[in-house]
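Exercise: predict the fold of this chain.
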Amino acid sequence: MAASSKSASSRFRLYALTGFLGFWLVAICIRLVYLQVFCYGDFERRAQRQQQRSFELSPRRGVIYDRAGHELAMSIQVDSAFIVPTETPDLANVVSLISRITKSDPRVVLADCRARKTFCWVARKADAETIDRIKALNLQGIHYQKEAKRFYPKRELAAQVLGYVGTDDEGLSGLERQYNERLQGKPGKLMISVDARKRWFASVEKEPEAGDNLVLTIDQNIQYIAERELDRAMDETKAIAGTVVVENPHTGEILALANSPTFNPNNRREIHPETLKNHAVSDVYEPGSTFKVVTVSAGLEEKLTRPDEMFDCQMGSIVINGTRIHDSKPHGVLSVSDIIAESSDVGAIKIAMRLGNDRFYKYIRAFGFGQPTGIELPGETRGMTKPVERWSKISFASISMGQEVGISAVQLSSLISTIANDGVRVPPRIVAGTVEHQNAPQTIAFQPVEGTRVISPLTAAQMKQMLQGVVLHGTARKAILEGYTSAGKTGTSQKFDPAIGKYSHTKYVGSFAGFAPINNPQLAVVVILDSAVGLHQGGQVAAPVFQRIVQQVLEYQHVPHDIELPPSRQVLLARRNAPDANVDESSPDHLGASLDIADADQTNTLAQSTPSKPNPATIASLVVPAAQVQRETSSAQSVNPMSSPSTTGAPPKPSVGLSGNATSTSTAPSGETKQFTAGTVVLDVEEGGIEVPSFIGKNLRSALEVAQDAGLDLAAVGSGVAREQSPAPGSHVAAGARVVVRFGR
C-alpha cells in the first residue's frame, strides 16, 4: 500500500514537472514566433538605424544651353569629404583642422558629427584646392565621395537670368529656380554600413537620374556685348543699377538680358542679396517720355490726329485742373512728328485730351501694361496701372507723358517691339524649350507665341517714321548708327524719394527704347540707367549705349546695311555728338507744383533760354494770372480740345501767319471747324486750384480713395473715423497739396 502510494506520488511529480516544462517550452516557442515573425520588421529597422545610414546622391542636373548650343550652366563631378566619427580618435581636433580649411564654424560641424555618429559631411562639393589640402593632412576617418556640382563656365554672364543653386542642388533664383523640377532629375542613394568592429562599408544602392536640359533664346555673344556696354555705361555714369533687353521683335525671343550690378554664381558665399534682383522683370519705374509712344500711336489709330498736324504747344506750358505743366524748353507750334522728336509734354497732353480716358486706358492695356508678359522668369511684376474710375482729373495728362504709371523693362521692350513688328504684339520669351538629357550640345527650334494686333500696319509705319525723326533730329541723336537706320524714343523720369515723401530733384531714371533697321527690324533694344550722376537724360546716357550695342550686334548677325556710309566718318560723328542741352527732355517741375511756383519757374526758364533780354510783355502773355482763369475759361468754351475731329476726314491743318503766330484747330461735336490763336489754354480750371472735399466721418480707406481721386496728398493721424481736417472742406489748394486728417474712435 505504501509502495503504491509512493509510486503514485512520483508519477504525479513527474507529470507536473513535464507539464511545467512543456508549458514553458510552448511559451518560449510562442515568444520566439512573436519576436521572429511579428516583430521582425521593427527589429530590422532598429538594427539598420544602428548599423546603416543612407544618404541622397545628387543627380546630374540638366544643362542650360544658349540658342546655339553653348553651355551656360552645367554639372561636373567633384569630391566631397565626409567623416566617420567612430573611426576618429580625436574628433574635435580633426574637425577643427578641417574647419580652418573650409572656413566653416567648427562648433556646428562637431555637433553635427556627434549627432550622426556614423557619417557626417565636412567639405561637400568643395573645390579641388580645398580637397587637396584636406587630403594632405592624411587624417584618420576622413573619406571621399564623388558628387555632381553646378558650374557656370561663363561666370557672371546672364547671372540673374540663370540664377544659382544651393549645396543640395536646389534652384534658388532665376531659371534654376523656375525650372528646378525639370532640371533637378531624381536623386540616387548611398548606403553606409558599420559592422560589429565598427568598420564601414559604402555602396551605391540607387544611381541618380539626370534632369532635362534647358535651351534658351539667349545668344551668349549678344549677351556678352550687352553686358560689356552696360558695364561701361555704369562706370561712366556712376548709376546705381542698369538694365539692357535685346529682343527679336518678330518672334519675341530675348537675345540678351543684362543687369548691373551682377554676381558670379560659382561663388555662393560672395553673393549679396541686392545683386540677385533681375531689374528687367522685377523693377517698376515711371517710364517718362517713352510712354508717349502709347499716347501718339493711340491717337493715330483712332484717326484723331495725323503725323503732320500742327499743335500749339503754348511755349511749353499748359494748365490742367489748376496745375501748370512745363516742357523742358519752350515750344511753339509743333507737328505730331516734332512732338515725338522734341518730346513735348504739352503736345502729348493735347493728344490725350482727344483720346479721352476710356480709349486711352484701352490702348494702355492692349500694349500689355498692367499685366505680366508671361516671360519664363521668376518674380515678374505686372506693373502699376490704375483703372479709369480711379483716375484723378489730371491723371490723363500725367499718364500721357509717362507719370502715374509703372512699367518694367521687359514691358517697355514689348511696346517698342510691337511698333517694330508692324503693330502686332508678340509676348517675349526667353526659353526655347526643354529636352531630355544628352551629352552632346543641343539646340531646339523656337516656336513663337501667336501675336495680337494692337495697331494697324499704317499706324505702325507712321510711328516708325516719327521715331526715326527722334534719332535724326530729336532727343536721340546719340543713337545714330553707321550704315543702318534706327528709330526709338528717349525717356527721363524722376524717382520718388520715400525719405522726403516726394519726387527727388537729383535722382532720375534715363531710358531709351529703339529698334533697327527701320524697314526690316532685326533688333529691339531697351536701355535703362538708374540714378546716373551728372548727365542723366535718356538721350544723354541711354541712347549711346543703344548705339554701341546695336552697331555691334547687327554686324555680328551680318545684317546688310540699309543706308550708305557717309563719305567722311567725321560727318557722322558730328551728327551723333549733339550738345547735351539739345537732347534734354524732362520737365522742370511736377504735377504737384502750385500755379505761382510753376509760373515763376516758367519765367526763369524763358529768361535762360533767350539770348537777349526778354520782352516783359512777351513773358506776361505766356503767364496766366489766377484772376484771369474764369475769363479765359469762358472764352475757350467754343474750343473743346477733348472733342474728336470730324469722322468724315482727317483733322484740318492749321494755318501759320507771316508773323509766326500759329493757329491750331479743333472740331466741335457738330463737325464745325473752329480756329484759335496761339496762347495759354486753360481747361476746366477753378480759381485757386482744387476744392478740398470733406473727409469727416470717413474711415481711412475711404479717405485715401477720395484724396487720390481729388489729386491730394492725405496725411492721416490716428485711426478710426475722420474727426478733423485741415484745410477745411471747401477751401481751394493746389493739386498735390497735403491735407491733414485726424482720425479717432
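Check your answer against the key: Residues 592-688 have pLDDT under 50 and may be disordered.
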